[in-house]
């Protein structure tokens, strides 16, 4: 007797793929509606970084020596990262809320791709943080920010910020799935938000004490900030762009692995 193995045809594979993307778009729309209904999310993620930018530029900026004529140009990359770090805490919160309300189990009982719920939260983080970054950029332009960067440099900046957001979002997924309380789900973001203050985001690292300078120069925020700053100013990018990308990709891969393990454990 001849045994034949049935291989899914291209039409079946295409149908599965279409279902995955349609399910994911539904999850994305669901999470985005939660954001637009929550004004505290918009205020925290967008208004607070803008207030910080105003404070540093108009209050502290005159006393900070950066070697540049326009302090808002120097400051802006760090403000972007602070806004993103603040925004991802809401990803953990929303995911934790879904876990506590049994939404995961409810979705698991439906004929949808299992990973679309996680990807819905991840894509929501990318979209919402992109909106925050655009709003901050518009305010920075009103404050005097100017850039001589070309289109390729701008696209590189967008790519780095998206990769940074994606990496931190998968970090946020882990406590969102495993935390025992709301505070536990969001507390991880505090040290991440604090990292730009011990970097080159606000002042050059050469002005720092030795121990602080060593830490500042060897943590991911400094490499990312310096790279974005060089790109926006139209200057040649040093080797730090590869350091920045290595940090982002490394964090992304490790966080994704642990997040999927946590998800598998949660639904098993």
Automatic annotation (TrEMBL):
- Which terms does the record give in the GO molecular function aspect? ABC-type transporter activity
TM annotation in the entry: 42-62, 74-96, 117-145, 151-173, 185-203, 241-259
Its membrane topology: Multi-pass membrane protein
Q: Which domain of life is it from?
A: Bacteria
InterPro entries reported in the protein's UniProt record: ABC2_TM, ABC2_TM_bact-type, ABC_2_transport, Nod_factor_ABC_transporter
Q: What is its main location?
A: membrane
Report the locations given in the UniProt record. Answer: Cell membrane; Membrane
Q: Which GO terms describe its cellular component?
A: ATP-binding cassette (ABC) transporter complex
Supply the alphabetized keyword list.
Cell membrane, Membrane, Transmembrane, Transmembrane helix, Transport
The residue ranges of the ABC transmembrane type-2 domain are 40-266
Do you know which PROSITE patterns this protein is assigned to?
Answer: ABC_TM2
Q: Which family does it belong to?
A: Belongs to the ABC-2 integral membrane protein family.
Q: What is this protein called?
A: Transport permease protein
